[in-house]
Every structure is written in structure tokens, then in C-alpha cells.
């Protein structure tokens, strides 16, 4: 079981964006604690500008990062098959 802890609310000079950030932050706070389920959507194209730690569920046909259909994490400069 994973544990999620929300960090501090980001700030922005635009009041509209700051209001949206507050709404999103409040949502994260409501999710804080134990996470019992995570659902990944299967994707068919490689993500643009992947960042370390991001996770995707590849379809294995249109987008095959190396080991076919499954879950991959981006680590360093490569997609690592998780299963």
C-alpha cells in the first residue's frame, strides 16, 4: 500500500491560476493518506518529454518501449519494464 502526503500549495501571481491551484491542492489534501488503488490508462504513443519516475502502461503494439505490453517507469534516459 502506498502512502501519499501533499506538499505545500504552490503560488502564482495570477489570482485565477492561484484559485485553481487551491482547488487542486484541496483535492490532494482530501486524498492524503493510504492509497489503495491506482488505475493506469493504456497509451498508444510514447510520451513527450518523459521525466524520471513517471509511469505508463504501454499497449505494446503502437508503442512498445522494449518488452511489449505492460507498465514502464522512466529512469535516467530509458523506459524500464515493471511488468
Description:
The protein is of the alpha+beta class and 83 residues long. It has two domains: 2-35; 42-81, no CATH class. Helices cover 20% and strands 27% of the residues. The chain has one helix and six strands; from the N terminus they run E-H-E-E-E-E-E. It has one helix at 15-31, and strands at 2-4, 33-35, 42-43, 55-58, 70-75, 78-81. It has a four-stranded mixed β-sheet with strand order 3-4-5-6, with no helix packed on it. Strands 1-2 form a two-stranded antiparallel sheet. It starts with a strand and ends with a strand.
Give the arrangement of secondary structure elements.
Elements: E1 2-4, H1 15-31, E2 33-35, E3 42-43, E4 55-58, E5 70-75, E6 78-81
Parallel strand pairs: 3-4
Antiparallel strand pairs: 1-2, 4-5, 5-6
Q: Oligomeric state of the chains? A: single chain
Supply the helix-strand structural class: alpha+beta
Number of domains: 2
First-to-last CA distance: 18 Å
Pick out the low-confidence regions: none
The number of E-state strands comes to 6
Work out the helix count: 1
Q: What value does the Rg take, in angstroms? A: 16 Å
Amino acid at each position: 500500500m502506498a502512502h501519499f502526503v501533499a506538499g505545500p500549495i504552490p503560488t502564482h501571481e495570477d489570482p485565477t491560476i492561484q484559485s485553481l491551484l487551491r482547488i487542486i491542492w484541496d483535492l490532494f489534501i482530501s486524498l492524503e493518506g493510504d492509497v489503495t488503488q491506482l488505475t493506469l490508462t493504456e497509451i498508444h504513443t510514447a510520451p513527450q518529454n518523459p521525466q524520471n519516475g513517471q509511469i505508463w502502461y504501454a499497449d505494446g503494439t503502437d508503442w512498445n518501449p522494449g518488452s511489449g505490453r505492460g507498465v514502464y517507469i522512466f529512469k535516467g534516459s530509458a523506459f524500464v519494464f515493471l511488468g
